[in-house]
Design a protein that fits this description.
There is one protein chain. The chain is α/β, with parallel strands linked by helices. It has two domains: 351 residues, TIM Barrel, CATH 3.20.20; 87 residues, no CATH class. It contains 15 helices and nine strands. A hairpin with a 5-residue loop joins strand 2 and strand 3. The C terminus is likely disordered.
Length: 459
């Protein structure tokens, strides 16, 4: 699903940011009905894109040109560079893009769908965002790396590691252009060494959708594609390469021709969340003119899809190709690191990835990010808080023991005297008092366990 399309970046190969406000974007309620339609049609994997779906910074004070402004989420951003863009990341309902996205993702998760958000990571600068993504039960977070400098790579991978620490499976995705052929293998190996999944997709220049048509093509040559494929092949065994291997060995024949999807199958579909019912496309590029009022089993849909595919020049989007050309043996290798991350063992996933890298010079060193430092501080704070809370409770219990004992004895004497007046035997009184004490202990145990669970969840 493609949500509001405004973005804080303007990548040369992407045309999405130019479509801001061309038509009314769907409200949250309308988007949820479109998700219902997709679920009812049998789709179980929900991927949400923008624009920038995690954009949502709002200034908390007056705007002063040339000064740093504090956002409500705690991030410092420069007015001159960012104000005009950030203030426009609000839907017609008055919701920030991130609030809009989280409601939709949370709903899809509750339906039982696997969920993924694609982001450039620019707004993921504090643990508050990560905690909200986790609360929405997001399964995957894909970072699009658009600044393939060493600083840009370190920034993205630091955020991706923090994402894995939060139990969300991170992937770093790089658009494969001719000028990135040399850096892609290094990024992929650095990702694996840090327990992060990697994917790449050959740049598309179709236009009228996600891609743009540049003045000078930047599509890599067949030789560059083959060279990158050879260098990425060892990562397949580690499980950190998301691309199905069929993408490299079957998608491109010796003539470098483009691939076309099967118009008789519906492994994937694209919903542009605009208007009440959205607008359906075979993919992000090929539109059908239909909306979610149609059934995918209908003759009308099949004819529109066949016509769209017939008029398509072909593409090499890796996500679409993978849907119709699964590599079950290769994909199964990704399960182990995914399970480790989802179960809270991201450190073990990193150890698994490091075993793949034979030469440390092949990777970029990534120090602990500010986001990871915040996570570590919060974790230590919660541990200390819980420990002090338990110690304090123990001290209170010890200090209050004589008073509790006196209260129990007084209650016992009072109940015994009252029972004697009513002719109740002393054995019944003893049984009643014993059951009261046992039941009270069980209730207190339950409260302690619940408090521990809430504390762990908050951590």
């Amino acid at each position: 699903m493609e949500g509001p399309t405004n973005c804080n970046r303007a990548c040369v190969y992407c045309d999405v940011h130019k479509r801001k406000n061309t038509v009314r974007f769907s409200t949250v309620a309308e988007s949820l009905r479109q998700v219902d339609w997709a679920y009812d049609e049998g789709f179980l994997f929900f991927q949400y894109v923008g624009g920038e779906p995690l954009a949502g910074c709002q200034f908390d004070g007056g705007v002063r040109p040339g000064r740093y402004q504090m956002c409500l989420n705690g991030a410092n951003l420069m007015y001159e560079d960012f104000t005009e863009k950030l203030t426009s990341f609000t839907t017609e309902e008055g919701k920030t893009y991130v609030d809009h996205a989280l409601e939709i993702i949370g709903y899809a998760s509750r339906l039982g769908m696997f969920t993924n958000v694609i982001t450039n990571g620019d707004f993921l600068d504090n643990t508050y965002y990560l905690s909200r993504l986790k609360k929405a039960r997001l399964d995957f977070l894909t970072f699009s790396l658009h600044s393939p400098t060493e600083a840009g790579i370190r920034s993205i991978i630091g955020k991706a590691r923090a994402t894995a620490n939060a139990g969300i499976i991170p992937t770093v995705s790089v658009v494969f252009t001719a000028d990135r052929a040399d850096i892609i293998p290094k990024v992929a190996k650095t990702c694996a060494a840090n327990g992060i999944f990697f994917s790449t997709s050959i740049v598309q220049e179709i236009g009228d959708g996600f891609s743009t048509v540049p003045e000078k093509s930047n599509i890599p040559t067949l030789e560059q594609i083959e060279k990158v494929a050879r260098e990425l092949e060892p990562l397949r065994k580690s499980g950190f390469l998301v691309n199905g291997w069929n993408y490299f060995v079957k998608a491109m024949d010796s003539n470098g021709s483009r691939w076309k999807c099967d118009p008789t199958q519906d492994q994937f579909i694209h919903i542009r969340a605009q208007g009440e019912k959205g607008e359906l496309g075979v993919c992000s590029e090929m539109r059908t003119g239909l909306d979610t009022g149609v059934s995918l089993k209908s003759k009308e849909w099949r004819e529109r899809k066949e016509g769209a595919v017939d008029g398509c020049p072909g593409c090499l989007y890796s996500c679409y190709f993978r849907c119709q050309n699964p590599d079950f043996r290769g994909d199964s290798q990704t399960l182990m690191p995914m399970v480790l991350i989802k179960s809270g063992h991201s450190g073990l996933a990193r150890k698994l990835g490091r075993r793949t890298i034979k030469d440390p010079s092949e990777i970029i060193s990534v120090p602990q990010s500010e986001l990871e430092k915040s996570q570590s501080w919060l974790k230590n704070y919660d541990r200390l808080h819980n420990r002090l809370k338990r110690k304090g409770k123990d001290l209170i219990d010890i200090a209050s023991a004589p008073f509790v004992l006196a209260a129990v004895l007084a209650t016992y004497v009072f109940v015994s005297l009252a029972a004697r007046r009513k002719g109740i035997s002393q054995d019944k009184v003893n049984e009643y008092m014993l059951m009261s004490i046992v039941y009270g202990g069980i209730v207190e145990l339950g409260k302690d366990e619940k408090n521990d669970e809430m504390s762990d969840s908050r951590s």
